[in-house]
Amino acid sequence: MHYASRENLLPIVETLISFGCRMDMRNKADATALHLAARFGNTEIARFLCLAGLNINIQDKVKKKLNRYFDFYDFILVFFS
After folding, report:
1. Can you tell me the distance from the alpha carbon of 35 to that of 41, in angstroms, rounded to the nearest whole number?
2. pLDDT (tens digit per residue) in 40-53
3. Is 42 exposed, middle or buried (0-12, 13-18, 19+ CB in 10 A)?
4. Structural Rg of the chain based on CA atoms
5. Nearest 5°: CA angle at 54, between 53 and 59?
6. Coil, helix or strand for 72?
7. What is the DSSP secondary-structure string of 25-71?
8. Rounded CA gap, 55 and 23, in Å?
9. What residues does 48 pair with on adjacent strands?
């Protein structure tokens, strides 16, 4: 899930979720797939994960919330499109 989110592979993310993959799993930096999608600017995946129910207020190891990874424009696109 993390790799697919980082590499902008939306069909893979969709398939993993459809097979029951946990969206809230964390990597060594305590980041979720949503953090990685946001960090790498993959707004379609970030939006999909948000709409699928992943908590947008979750923090990573350095206490960064999701909105710290988006610039304002991307944040608006993801959450208000």
Report:
1. 10
2. 888 889 889 988 88
3. buried
4. 11
5. 155
6. helix
7. ---TTS--HHHHHHHTT-HHHHHHHHHTT--TT-B-TT--BGGGTS-
8. 9
9. none
Q: Give the list of residues 6+ apart from residue 57 with CB closer than 8 angstroms, or none.
A: 65, 66
CATH 2.102.10.10 is held by the domain 2-80 = no
What does residue 46 show for φ and ψ, rounded to 5 degrees?
-60, -45
**24-81 confidence digits (pLDDT tens):** 899 998 889 988 888 888 888 988 998 888 877 777 777 666 656 666 455 655 565 5
Overall residue count recorded for the chain in this entry: 81
Is residue 5 within 8 Å of residue 33, measured between CB atoms? yes
Angle at 61 between CA 67 and CA 64, to 5 degrees: 15
